[in-house]
Specification:
Elements lengths: L29 H7 L8 E2 L5 E2 L5 H16 L15 H17 L12 E5 L6 H10 L2 E6 L2 H12 L8 E5 L17 E6 L7 H16 L14 H4 L4 H13 L6 E8 L5 H10 L4 E9 L2 E9 L3 H11 L3
Parallel strand pairs: 3-4, 3-6, 4-5, 6-7
Antiparallel strand pairs: 1-2, 7-9, 8-9
Helix pairs in contact: 1-2, 3-4, 8-9
């Protein structure tokens, strides 16, 4: 049976909502990506509208797309993750990094600080190591990646080891206590310019599976009984006790202990309904300054909440000491 080709859809040249410096604002150029990674070719199909695409519900296709994007745009020759681990959508992750670069720049007379003297901490680096890869390529920043999962640390370490450009730029640290976020990771006298985090979203395994099924049923318009995680994800990556809200509240509480060790703490907040309790926690922790940055990609809206305990004078001293050329 032959597929009926419908009239080709008109797409906006630039995807709305993405940061101006995001390399992924235009639609995927699959010919270019296949030239960078020929293994992508079998996963690229022409859809009913005569557009080249992949099946975004196929985990292997999504992983191969990520490999091609990382090779073409970020000079990553080796990238792989263990089966079932989180395979993140790269455009959204890049947006977070670019918005954080703007935040640092806003404290530095409008000039984004670059180079490996800028040190970032990725809380929950995962097996994929995406934030350090993007941050290092775009701004030359150095990273500490931390995770409670030994397999994730091993996988991220392999990515760093097998890409010479990343050697010496990314350090991986296993967090031995799942209740601690910064303790045991940030060392005495160690200064961190920025933390980033993509916190576990759900409150339980059941909720994570339910959310995946709901998304599949809405997008595919047919009933699914068993969820297929197209972007993967282990339990610790998808859920924790209390979900995103509790995780972020714990992070805020614990961040105060390291008030003078870090300039900007930050985290993604996926659920707008969580903002109220996050702001209450920040107020109780006596954060000096709080920023909320909206991000959007297609129909998905999220935001970053960033906070600092440093006074204006402390901020000026920090930028002068660490970012001045």
């Amino acid at each position: 049976m032959q597929m009926k080709i419908q009239d080709k859809r008109e797409h906006p040249k630039i995807k709305p909502g993405l940061h101006p410096r995001n390399r992924h604002r235009e639609r995927y150029d699959f010919k270019m990506l296949i030239a960078s990674l020929p293994e992508l070719a079998p996963f690229v199909k022409v859809n009913a509208y005569n557009d080249e695409t992949i099946d975004f519900f196929d985990p292997e296709a999504v992983k191969m797309l990520n490999k091609s994007l990382l090779r073409h745009y970020y000079e990553i020759d080796f990238w792989d993750i263990p089966a079932g681990y989180l395979c993140p959508p790269i455009p959204g992750r890049a947006d977070y990094i670019h918005h954080m670069a703007d935040l640092l720049g806003s404290c530095n007379h409008g000039k984004i600080p670059t180079g490996n003297q800028v040190k970032c901490l990725d809380v929950g680096v995962g097996a994929n190591c995406i934030y350090p890869i993007i941050g290092n390529k775009e701004y030359g920043w150095s990273f500490i990646g931390t995770d409670t999962d030994a397999v994730s640390i091993e996988s991220a370490g392999k990515i760093v080891d097998l890409n010479p450009r990343l050697n010496g730029m990314i350090e991986l640290r296993l967090q031995p206590n799942s209740n601690d976020i910064f303790k045991g990771i940030i060392q005495n006298d160690e200064l961190i310019d920025l933390t980033v985090c993509n916190p576990p979203f759900h409150t339980s395994v059941a909720e994570a599976k339910s959310g995946t099924l709901r998304k599949l049923n809405n997008l595919k318009s047919k009933r699914f009984i068993k969820p297929v995680l197209n972007f993967g994800g282990q339990n610790h990556e998808l859920w924790c006790e209390g979900g995103e809200e509790q995780f972020v509240r714990d992070m805020i509480l614990q961040s105060k202990t390291f008030a003078t060790s870090c300039f900007w703490f930050s985290t993604l907040i996926s659920k707008e309904s969580n903002l109220k309790s996050v702001y209450i926690a920040l107020d109780k922790s006596e954060a000096f300054e709080v920023k909320t940055i909206s991000m959007g990609q297609g129909n998905k809206i999220s935001r970053v909440v960033a906070w600092t305990f440093l006074s204006i004078e402390q901020q000026k001293e920090w930028t002068k000491r660490r970012w001045s050329e």
